[in-house]
Amino acid sequence: MAEDRIARLRAALAERGLDGLVVVKPENRAYLSGFTGSAGVLLITPERAVLITDFRYTEQAAAQAPAFQVMKPESTDEALIARLVDEFGLKRIGYEGDHLTVDQFQTYRQAVSGCEWVSVTGLVETLRMVKDQTEIARMRRAAEIADEAFAQILPLVKPGAVERDLAAELEYRMKKLGAEGVAFETIVVSGVRSSLPHGRPSDKAIAAGDLVTFDFGALYEGYCSDMTRTVVVGEPTDKQREIYSIVLEAQKRGVAACRPGITGKELDDVCRSYIKERGYGEYFGHGTGHGVGRFIHEGPRVSQRGGDVVLQPGMVVTIEPGIYLPGWGGVRIEDMLLVTESGAEVLTRTPKELLIL
Ligand code: ZN
Ligand code: ZN
Fold first, then answer.
1. How many angstroms does the Cα of residue 85 sit away from the middle of ligand 2?
2. 3-class DSSP assignment, residue 275
3. Do both 58 and 151 map to the same domain?
4. How far is the CA of 334 from the centre of ligand 2 (A)?
5. What backbone torsions phi and psi does residue 176 show, to the nearest 5 degrees?
6. Ligand with minimal distance to 319 CA
7. What is the tens place of the pLDDT at every residue in 178-227?
8. Beta-bridge partners for 117
9. Domain of 316?
10. Is 121 found in the same domain as 14?
11. Which ligand is the nearest neighbour of the Cα of 230?
């Protein structure tokens, strides 16, 4: 797998006229090499792939990154890079301008003289947007773990249950089911607090009649899942039913429209125009979705801003419209989808019809 990723990277370097790339961002390093240690630098050229890491990690690196030549610096990483750049005769080298600090960059530039440094912000991230089979399998599992954990905690969601306890329980169950951690801080908000799209779980106890929104995901072998469900505790009011059915319909339209060839912005339009049509446009204040992978938020965006990437098979995105009425509450429904050749496969399987607990 690493070989395929390196081949795609080399094609991207050739397109930009670069004869080397220095990779320091941990997610990009792990993506390209397979190495998951906390320290290391990659130098990738058309012919060579070198992983520089210190003595704590050389054994792990050799095992996890067989496509790379593992090297240990005698002094600093920068000094070794400088020697290799000279040895390989590199002239134009890319670096991650959105990640290196100014100090780090100056250190590289001073150590490596006689070559041009070019910022390639987003280059590896662009490759990462299209997932391969290994990544898809991990994300599928991450989604399954979240589905299963949610099913396990539903019996606990009743009047008197505290938001913070439910969040902790959900995270505990995900870990018991094999997650190495959570994809992001679990959101559990109830009653009027459910109008906070990214509210943190509080000490509030759930009351009869509350809407409760859960937004959570598992981290499995380095990959995230992301799902939101809103349930109601006790018999819903007409208003709760109305808002829920609008969000659900918008979400289903988004899922149905998700396919190769559509842009993130167009997909956002699908959900947004329906909510607008039903009179709640101003209460849907965030983008429809985002890409997911090693990060919970990565490309492509599914929103008006920056949503110009055309979806391709292998991309994984969320569709998560919501309506939030201040002082009343909110509803959000979110699935994570894999774009396929003909449409999209929903990876998060928890049912979406209004669940009355
Ligand atoms: Zn989410
Ligand atoms: Zn999301």
1. 41
2. helix
3. no
4. 7
5. -60, -30
6. 2
7. 999 999 999 999 999 999 988 899 999 999 999 999 999 999 999 999 99
8. 93
9. 133-356
10. yes
11. 1
